[in-house]
Amino acid sequence: MIAYFSVIFCFELRLFAKIILHRSLLSFKRGILSKFVVTESIKAPSLLAEIARDRAVGTELLGRTEEEQRRSGYFHTLREILQQPATWLRTGKELVYAFDGLAQTIADVRTLVLTGSGSSEFAGQCVRLPLQNRLSIPAQAIGGGMLLMFGSKAIAPGRPGLMVSLARSGDSPESVGALSVILETEPEIRHLIVTCNAQGRLATTYRADTRVRVVLLAEQTNDRSLVMTSSFTNMVLAATSLGMLQTPDRYLTLIERLSLKAEELLYKHFDTLAGLARRDFNRVIFLATGPRLGAARESALKMLEMTSGRVSATCETYLGLRHGPMSAVHADTLIVCFLSSEPLVRAYECDLIRELNLKQLGMAKLFFGEQIPPDLARSEDVTINCDGLARLGDENMPVLDVILGQLLAFFRCLKEGLQPDSPSSDGVISRVVHEFKLHRPEN
């Protein structure tokens, strides 16, 4: 009898300790979030007004009435680009409240898959390497189409696993089909859906499945424009949290620093990027290394989408450029260089840029980095020298890189006489990919 009551007492004591710990964690989260909410409320309305007041191009575009902006077709896209610093703060706050559930979802997994279609696939590429290093497990970024066609053959061994599906709308045929295929064929793979659309099929179809957890981002991130902007960066930051579940204070600090830096970039260089976009280039190549290559791919896609293909755009690694793609760098090519803060990586990147200068390739270059060597830039080049990037780390830079790509594409779209909210006037592409037949393997 004494042994029985001892067991009951120990059980109740452990339960009480868990409750106290849980409440302490909630109190801790509320404490660090309380300071965060104040920052968000201050930042949210200010950037748009400041750019409209202090930047010539901002005054030109934002000084028009809402009706005129809608008629010119840029009302949604411009606001969705400029709202990113504020939306990141909200995403960070909401993700921290979900950390307990996310920790359960990722517990003991031996392989990680990040999947999506189009821009969402590139978002996975931005976080794959950082998550692999932070979690010490193999991580892959696999397109939804690859999973549709090859199923579990595309996924590295090691179970249990976690598949993270990233999607703005959650209605893309590949995204829904890929999740369905892996649910049917891989019982030891859990699923995390990160989406911006509460009404999308990914958010609604699988809620009752115990292997699926849904993280729904704020409705504000569900871009109305054809192109993905704030949805992309917020999904990147949401996925980033998986590597920082044990350190919510560090995660929120990172989000706040990135938000401040993004606001600085948008405010200081709004007119700079508008001027560069108006130059006479016909093609753009984005150069990047490591996780920033995902941002380069997304930036190239933004240029293609927003110019309806009139400006050819691609991306490459610095070292990869020598293996053939350098032949496409002509006198009408703008070269965008996302420069690493890592000394070893930066050395290789600078060598390649000096080679381009020696060969007199390209029309002009846009540099983005910290402490950019002055000998890299020629007279026609544009340099965005930004302090504090090394402290943020290359692994966290994609959301800042892609903001430059978004603005460059936005301004070029206007120069081409197109409408950023719906640049594909002939309907070749759409906000959500139209339904197509999904095939299954024959038995």
Describe it for me?
It is built from 17 helices and ten strands. It is α/β, with parallel strands linked by helices. Among the domains are: 149 residues, Rossmann fold (3-Layer(aba) Sandwich); 160 residues, Glucose-6-phosphate isomerase like protein, domain 1 (Rossmann fold), CATH 3.40.50. The strands form two sheets. Strands 2-1-3-4-5 form a five-stranded parallel sheet, with helices on both faces. Helix 1 packs parallel to helix 13, helix 6 runs antiparallel to helix 13 and helix 9 packs across helix 10.
List the helices and strands and how they pair.
Layout: H1 2-43, H2 46-54, H3 56-62, H4 66-72, H5 75-82, H6 84-97, H7 99-106, E1 111-116, H8 119-135, E2 139-143, H9 144-150, E3 161-167, H10 173-185, E4 189-195, H11 201-205, E5 212-216, H12 230-240, H13 248-277, E6 283-287, H14 292-306, E7 312-316, E8 333-338, H15 343-358, E9 364-369, E10 382-385, H16 389-392, H17 398-415
Parallel strand pairs: 1-2, 1-3, 3-4, 4-5, 6-7, 6-8, 8-9, 9-10
Low-confidence segments, ≥5 residues, pLDDT <50?
Answer: 1-44
CATH H-level name of the domain at 256-415... which superfamily?
Answer: Glucose-6-phosphate isomerase like protein, domain 1
Number of helices: 17
Q: Would you give the CATH topology of the domain at 256-415?
A: Rossmann fold
Give the strand order of the largest sheet, numbering strands 1, 2, ... along the chain: 2-1-3-4-5
Shape: globular
Instruction: Quickly give the CATH architecture of the domain at 256-415.
Output: 3-Layer(aba) Sandwich
User: What portion of the residues fall into strands of 2 or more residues?
Assistant: 5-15%
Write the H/E string, N to C.
HHHHHHHEHEHEHEHEHHEHEEHEEHH
Text of the CATH class of the domain at 256-415: Alpha Beta
The value of Rg in angstroms is 23 Å
Q: Largest beta sheet, briefly?
A: 5 strands, parallel
Helix share bin: 40-55%
Query: How would you classify the helix and strand content by structural class?
Result: alpha/beta
Q: Quick one: how many beta strands?
A: 10
Mean pLDDT comes to 90
